[in-house]
Every structure is written in structure tokens, then in C-alpha cells.
Design a protein that fits this description.
This protein has a 5-stranded mixed sheet, with no helix packed on it. It is elongated, with a radius of gyration of 18 Å. With 247 residues, it is of the alpha+beta class. 33% of the residues lie in helices and 18% in strands.
Length: 247
């Protein structure tokens, strides 16, 4: 039986890269873990940084980001509000542009390569920095597993993104929530196998007579805190859509 995962999917990273600063928002919760991770990236000796996921619009959080300025540009990993709410205000205060690009850019004195990693959301993007670490937003979390919430979440796309991230090898992961991980390939492999095992549980629940998503949740996610069942139901909807397309 596949249980609810609360531990990290890979070994924790001992030390952040010298070019990465973590500013964590004070918005902890069941879906945000310790809070949203805002990452400030700047090569040593470079005057300006790039901000990834400015997070919620909390004045203390904005002040902490600006303290680490000046800011060259703003990036986001996906459109969820806990990652983007502060974007307009931060752009207004700093004058920094919000960038959306394919391929590579030089920002904060670093090579930033954008790669599409949809699944958690349609617009999810990861950023590989100097081929030394990858920022993944909510595609991989520092603890537990992420939500693939139908209809914006797409499980087939998510599994494909896991293959993309496995291809990065043992690269450190800087996630959108929770602690940094030491090995992207290990974390993505764990996520892929966990999703496959959950799919088999959902398939069995449907074969056993479960009809509605919440019927499946009561069977497959019985070990999950009921406060998370609505999110689990959206994940089940994504699983059911996947099974319809991949019988």
C-alpha cells in the first residue's frame, strides 16, 4: 500500500550555492509547508540579483527581498498566487522587468536556462542555473509530494516532466516550498514511481466500484489528513483523466 509522503524525496542539500539566497515568506500552511521560497540569485561580485517567485504580498517579505537588492529582473516558476502575488508591487518598487523567455539568458551574472516542466500547472517552468542547480517551483517540493490538481494540473505532462528532470542528473534542487534537495534525478525518480503506484491504487478503487473522485479519496487517501482531501480530490480527477486516456 502506498502511503502519504511527508518526508523529503531525496537527501537534503547541505549548503546552498554561493549565488543563491533564500528568503522564505511567512505564509506557512498545509499546502505551502514552511512558506513560499523566494530565491535571489546573484553571482559573487555581481551588482544586481534576479528574483525567482516573489511570493505573497506581505510587507515584511517584500522588505526582505528589497534588502537583498538591487534587482535586475523577476522570474516566476508558475502562476499560483502564493508565488506571484507580490510580483506587481515588487516590479513597481524596483523597476525590475518580469521576464518570460525560452532558452538561456544571462541574469545576475549567471546563465539561466528555462525549461518547460508542466504538470503541476500548465505554465510550470524550471530554471537551471549555471548547470549547477535547478529551481523547480512546486514541481518538486522539499518535503512530501506536490499536487497535480485537475484541470490545470495534467498527470501525463507531469510524468513527462519527471523524465526531463531525471535527465538533469544529480543536480541540487531549489524548490518552491521546503528545504533544498541534493539530487534532482533521485527526487524526480521517487516522484515518478510514487505517481505510478498511486495510479494503480486509483485503478483498483475504480474497479472496486468507486465512481466519484471523493469515493476514490476515501479509499486511496485514507491516511491523509481530511483537511487535504479537497486537494486530493482534484489530484484524483487528474488521475482519472490520465486513466481514461491511458487505459
Amino acid at each position: 500500500m502506498v502511503g502519504h509522503v511527508t518526508a523529503p524525496a531525496a537527501v537534503l542539500l547541505d549548503t546552498l550555492p554561493t549565488w543563491a539566497t533564500l528568503v522564505r515568506a511567512a505564509n506557512p500552511g498545509p499546502m505551502t509547508l514552511d512558506g513560499t521560497n523566494t530565491w535571489l540569485l546573484r553571482a559573487p561580485g555581481t551588482p544586481r540579483s534576479v528574483v525567482v517567485d516573489p511570493g505573497p504580498q506581505l510587507e515584511e517579505h517584500l522588505a526582505a527581498i528589497i534588502e537583498n537588492g538591487p534587482i535586475e529582473a523577476i522570474l516566476v516558476t508558475h502562476g499560483h498566487e502564493d508565488h506571484t502575488q507580490a510580483v506587481p508591487r515588487l516590479a513597481e518598487i524596483t523597476g525590475a522587468p518580469v521576464l518570460d523567455f525560452d532558452g538561456e539568458e544571462t541574469l545576475g551574472g549567471l546563465t539561466v536556462r528555462a525549461i518547460d516542466t508542466p504538470g503541476h500547472t500548465r505554465d510550470s517552468v524550471s530554471y537551471v542555473i549555471n548547470d549547477e542547480a535547478v529551481l523547480v517551483g512546486d514541481t518538486i517540493l522539499g518535503r512530501g509530494t506536490t499536487v497535480v490538481a485537475f484541470p490545470d494540473g495534467d498527470l501525463a505532462a507531469y510524468l513527462s516532466s519527471m523524465e526531463t528532470l531525471i535527465g538533469l542528473g544529480p543536480m541540487p534542487v531549489l524548490p518552491g516550498h521546503g528545504p533544498a534537495l541534493a539530487d534532482c534525478a533521485a527526487a524526480a525518480t521517487y516522484y515518478r514511481e510514487h505517481r505510478r503506484a498511486r495510479l494503480e491504487q486509483v485503478r483498483a478503487a475504480v474497479a472496486g466500484g468507486a465512481v466519484e473522485a471523493m469515493d476514490v479519496v476515501r479509499i486511496v487517501y485514507a491516511d491523509v489528513d481530511e483537511v487535504l482531501w479537497p486537494a486530493a480530490a482534484l489530484t484524483v480527477e487528474a488521475q482519472l483523466a490520465y486513466l481514461r486516456d491511458h487505459p
